[in-house]
Amino acid sequence: MSSTAPRFGANYTPSQGWFHHWLDFDLDAVRADLDSIAGLGLDHIRVFPLWPLFQPNRTLIRPRAVEQLVELADAAAERGLDVNVDGLQGHLSSFDFLPAWTQTWHRRNLFTDPDVVAAQAAYLRTLAAALADRPHFIGMTLGNEINQFSGDPHPDPDPITPGQAGDWLRTLLDACEEGAPGKLHLHAEYDASWYQDDHAFTPAHAARIGAVTAVHSWVFNGTAQRHGRDGTATEHHAAYLIELSKAWAHDPHRPVWLQEVGAPAPLIPAGHAAPFTEATVANALDCEDVWGVTWWCSHDVSRSLADFPELEYGLGLLTNDRQVKPAGRAIARIVEDQRAVAHRPKPRTIALVVDTGDDDTAPRRSVCAPGGEVFEAFARLTADGARPTTVLASRADDRDHLAGRGITEVVTPAQVL
């Protein structure tokens, strides 16, 4: 078990102009935002360049845009905040941001077209290299939930196979490593990777490729609808994803980053956001090997901006004018409490068997989704006071594997339900 204290941060959503702020970059406004984030006691931010603005042509990566990213990162460092950079945006809060050279008359597959992949690699390598000498630079995330472009329910997907997804991930992570050797480079998908049977990005990709496993926990995926705002499954959803990821990991103590988690209204009403935040983070921290928790998001989206889904406007720890909200106060309390004690969660000794068919492609992974037998059995065990983890069916009788993870009891969903 790692004894490293977990990190606490926020996904940085600029208070002025949202991510469109790159068009009218105002370093003073950024500094004010970062002051308000640092005031919560957080130690890092996740930053989102908009890909079409940074690489508007396949062979043009705008030097001034890269300079502004470095200026933002340096301003964060001045306030004690480390920085992770997501490169391919990609997709943010229901909006897609893809450069014109991948669309319409220039339409080509984002994941398999050789020219597109080479340009993506050059872009990520350039961003990583620009920050490589900064000690406060954590590393690159390839993009924000870019897996949503690979299939349903996206309205205009670029279909690929799991094999092609794996090749794409390795190619681009290699580019990040070339740009900034030795930094923490990773990829991050939304939960279709864990829950959708035919999805090209798989649990094995998430848990075996990159420096850490990233999970994004959103209870509007059917969890809160089925179990309510304060149901066991709802308050433990992030912890469930952390423990589910461990079934596929080769390293028994691979770090897991809860890279996105938030309190989405109306399923989590504004008046319940703070209790949900406290419960979600406490339960996540009851898992071993948590690299960190990064809340979505830092600041609310301004009501002057149109066409966002309603839930997106109020997810901030701070208001649009940088006032701390109840969820922000809850996070600040958690950070202060965690830094006062050693973080050493006990091993989870009971493991729930996960059988999704082939371990690499997981053709039956919907058993892990809300309503599926693995998901519901995990919630039942947790409600009964157990602290379950998960193990693949192919490893359920592997004594060395179980011992390496501290597992002493294995149960099937059928036994639980």
Helical stretch tally: 15
CATH superfamily of the largest domain: Glycosidases
**Would you tell me the overall average pLDDT?**
97
- CATH topology of the largest domain, which one? TIM Barrel
**Ends distance:** 30 Å
String of helices and strands: EHEHHEEEHEHHHEHHHEHEHEHEHEH
> Strand content of the residues, in percent?
5-15%
Rg, please? 20 Å
Strand order of the largest sheet: 6-3-2-1-9-8-7
Protein name: Glycosyl hydrolase
InterPro entries: GH (IPR017853)
GO molecular function, one term: hydrolase activity
Keywords: Hydrolase
Would you mind describing this structure in some detail?
The protein has 15 helices and 12 strands. It is an alpha/beta fold. It folds into 2 domains: 7-338, Glycosidases (TIM Barrel), CATH 3.20.20.80; 350-416, no CATH class. The strands form 3 sheets. A 7-stranded parallel beta sheet has the order 6-3-2-1-9-8-7. A 3-stranded parallel beta sheet has the order 11-10-12. A two-stranded antiparallel sheet has the order 4-5. Strand 10 (350-354), helix 13 (373-383) and strand 11 (388-392) form a beta-alpha-beta unit. Helix 11 runs parallel beside helix 12 (326-338). The relative contact order is 0.13. The model has no long low-confidence stretch (mean pLDDT 97). This is Glycosyl hydrolase. Keywords: Hydrolase.
